Structures are given as C-alpha cells and as structure tokens.
C-alpha cells in the first residue's frame, strides 16, 4: 500500500510538473503569396492555411499577400537582404534562375527524405517541370500553373454566320473569322473587335504562344541564350502586328492584360487569348454562352506554360524547412490540386488530380476545364533565363515597340536580341 501510495504521489508530481511547463511552441513559417488574378483568392488561401494548421497543430503559417508576381519577387529579395526572408513562397516558375543565382532557395531533394517524398517530386506533369528543374535538381513545385487558351463568344459567332461550336484551328482561319466578327458603327468606329491578345502585363508570354505555334524556341534549356531575332520569331511578331495594322481585326497599340476579360464580358471582343487562370472568372461573369479551345496552330499547336511554383528558402531553420516542405506537400496532394483547379481555373498540376471524384464530376459538368490539360502535351517551358527580369524586359520593350508602330518587327527583335546578349554574356 505504501509503495502504491508513493508511486501515485510521484506520478501526480510528474503530471503537475508537466502541466507547469509551457506547451511546445509551434514552428512558425512565413508564406508569401502573390495576388495577381481576380476573385476571392485570399479567402481561398486563408481556408487552405486553416485546414493545414488543423491537421498540423505544431506548425503556424503566416500568409503574406504580396501583390503581383513582380511585387512578390522584389519583396522577397529585399526581405532576404534584410535577413527576413519568408520560409516559403509562390513565385513565378520563370524566376527559378534568379532565385538560384541569388542563393535564395534550396532544392527539394535536400528535404525529400523518404521514398514517399521522392515519389512526390515525380508526381507532376513533365511540361510544368521544365520550369521547375535544372542541373538535375528540383527547385520549384508546381502550384498555380496555367497555359494560354482561347475563349470565344458563341452568340457573336452565331450573329456573324459562323458555327458557334467551331473555333479557329489555324492562324489564317483565326484572321478570317476575326474579320467577320469585327463590327463597326455607321461612323466606322469599331464596336466589337474580332480577336484580342493582351500586350501589357505579360506580353512576352502571349507572344511565346505565337512563337511556339511557329515552331521556334525563345531560349536554351540552360537559360544562357535567347533567339529573339530568328526568322520564325520575327514572322510570329509580324502576324500579331498585322492583325491590328493591316487586317484591322485586333485593337491597335497596347492591349491591357487586366481589362481583357472585362472587354470580353462587355462584348467589345469576340475572341480573346488569356490564361486558364481566368476560367472560373469567365464562367461566373460571361453573360453569354462561351467556348474554350486550344490555341490555333501555324506549324504546330502550342502554348508556353505559366504561373507560380512553391519555393523553400535557404535561410529557413531546419525545423522551418521541414514545416515548409510539409505545407507544400499538403497543398499539392491530388485532392487539393483538383480543388484548387476547380476553385480558380488553374490547371491541376498532377495527373492523379484528374482521377479524383471531384475533378471527374467537374469535367463532366464543365468539359472546357479539360482543354488546358489536353494542351499540355503541346506545351513548352515559359521564357526563363538568368537575370530573367532584365532579359524579359528587353523582349517586352521590343514587342511593344513593334505593336505601337515605333519599330518594324525585324528591327524590334534584333534590338531585343542585342540587349539580351549583353545581359547574358556573363552567364556563358
């Protein structure tokens, strides 16, 4: 009895000691997320974070909504120099080389310890991994990824005497259809353009769809060379310029990225090229029946991939790296990749996401959701090089000079190539 009473007393004392100790502090990680597309994205992210924390009570995730993709990488690099980098962020897949050159991120192989972890790194569509791997290492995990697709107003097609179920399949066909779809009032002012390809925000990206379709790449796999002055590149730019200047079926000058969907909803344009990330936005807001199609071809089908990857930062402590990796894996399970695609319109980034019951039901109800997935076999890596911001600016400046008539396409591309060569010389 005395022994039992003594044991009881010891256990009670131990329990009281444990109760007096503070609970183990949760590992805190900062998560930079770019809000760059319309819709209640921040609420979605908040809900995802709450779900992760519920299942992982030892981790506290602090989302930081950091503006556009451009704002986000600027803020991340500034914070890093100040010793306050986030532990995880969603940044453009094309900024991979910049982040590597800044010694900012760690390859996921350093965090993937188990067989399941290693299988996770191989779970994504190969087209998305082209902008996520280099030098045999995985630097980014695809999250909100996209391709460019064509949306068309079926009512406008019907009014123009076109089959509303048949979008253009080639460049020539798109130009011919756009001529029939362009409407003018009694004074000759355009009330509806046939086609609209945005040239602000991400002009290089939309242009890369044209160059891909003309079967030419804009850069090498090492990110050390560009090919802006190749004849097929110039030809692609000439086609874009001619849609406005010669055929007058496309708005002249610079077309705003952000307002293009609104122009489509307001029937100011009958066909638009934009990201699959706008799919949910279009579905909710288009006041007419619409279609979604792969982009028309010239020499081939094609679109660059686009969008953001998860990156984990080198300055994170070991326990923060572990927490960040768990968060990335949690956010990109097949079920959540499917849910994110359904909620936003981005392409679900792994094949098994399309086999989930939720995604199967979604595609059965809304077949247009599968167009971007079906375009992936024709997709190429988005323009990405060392010193990517400056190289991309050189191309964007050239594109805008050609589209505004300041330079002919050939000169614009030759000048852009000279500037890219100057920038990339140090990396060869």
Automatic annotation (TrEMBL):
Belongs to the bacterial solute-binding protein 1 family. This is ABC transporter substrate-binding protein. Gene3D superfamilies: Periplasmic binding protein-like II. One of its GO terms (cellular component) is periplasmic space. Residues 1-25 form the signal peptide. It is found in: Periplasm. The keyword Signal applies. It comes from Azospirillum thermophilum. Its main location: periplasm. Keywords: Signal.
